[in-house]
Design a protein that fits this description.
Belongs to the short-chain dehydrogenases/reductases (SDR) family. It contains 9 helices and 7 strands, in the order H-E-H-E-E-H-E-H-E-H-H-E-H-H-H-E. Helix 2 (33-44) packs across helix 9 and helix 3 packs parallel to helix 4. The chain is 47% helix and 14% strand. The protein has one domain (3-193, 220-242): Rossmann fold. It is globular and about 55 Å long. The chain is of the alpha/beta class. It has helices at 3-17, 33-44, 72-85, 109-137, 149-152, 158-178, 196-199, 203-211, 221-232; strands spanning 24-27, 48-53, 63-66, 91-94, 140-145, 183-190, 243-246.
Length: 254
């Protein structure tokens, strides 16, 4: 267990002593990739972690529920199930999202709207529903998983960049609206990440991408998960409305 995970677990356990049971963390799209790594770190930090998935078979070791973030009905049913069978989620990680890349002249309105619907409106659906429970608890963490391209843009990703950029305005509006209730809202923005997709790139292209990053390499899903676990912990109780880059310096704080 790394240092960040140990710190997060320490504070989570301290908070648990003040409660009847561990705080519940919900990770949307937690069945694979970055979301799964986040779920693992939150669980290691002492949170009772629930993951959502849209289809297929969820990974073992977690409580899980079907949720399609593009459907308000699906989101409502998932929360009703979680709240009735497990409890009110206190840590909300809005991670679920999609990409449909393409140059702007070839990008259809459907491709633009579907990405915005999943990544931005989907995050709104989830967090709006979650706020009902957070207000009852009078505490909570809303953590949006953004992207460096939300700040600096990316050729071929007009839809994805727009959706991720919108998360910052959403988080800061939540922060102002809900801060007095003990609820924080932040955006963790990864850069280029080691994923199954980037693993298929040839060495030349990987080198070209890495050369754009001051640290000269891709980010690991674990590095993102460590930051999310920190933001979820009591040690980050005074951080809200922040854009937290995990991008090797690529965005330089934009």
């Amino acid at each position: 267990m790394g240092l960040y995970a140990k710190v997060a677990r320490y504070f989570a356990l301290m908070a648990e002593n003040l409660r009847d049971s561990p705080a519940i963390a919900l990770v949307t799209g937690g069945n694979r990739g970055i979301g799964l790594e986040i779920a693992r770190h939150l669980q290691s930090a002492g949170f009772r972690t629930v993951i959502t998935y849209r289809n297929g078979t969820p990974p073992g070791g977690f409580e899980s529920v079907v949720m399609d973030v593009t459907s308000t009905d699906s989101v409502d049913k998932a929360f009703e199930k979680i709240e009735s069978e497990i409890g009110i989620p206190e840590i909300i990680v809005a991670n679920a999202g999609i990409t449909k890349d393409g140059l702007v002249l070839r990008m259809s309105e459907e491709d633009f709207e579907s990405v915005v619907n999943a990544n931005l409106t989907g995050a709104f659906r989830v967090t709006k529903r979650a706020v009902k429970g957070l207000l009852k608890l009078k505490r909570g963490r809303i953590i949006f998983i953004g992207s460096v391209v939300g700040s600096v843009g990316a050729a071929g990703q007009v839809n994805y960049s727009a959706s991720k950029s919108g998360l910052l305005g959403m988080a800061r509006s939540y922060a102002r609206e809900l801060g007095s209730r003990g609820i924080t809202a932040n955006v963790v923005a990864p850069g280029f990440v080691e994923t199954d997709m980037t693993a298929t790139l040839d060495e030349k292209r990987r080198g070209e991408i890495a050369a754009q990053v001051p640290l000269g390499r891709f980010c690991s899903a674990e590095e993102i998960a460590k930051v999310v676990a920190f933001i979820a912990s009591d040690s980050a109780s005074y951080i809200t409305g922040a854009l937290i880059p995990v991008d090797g310096g690529l965005g330089m704080g934009h």
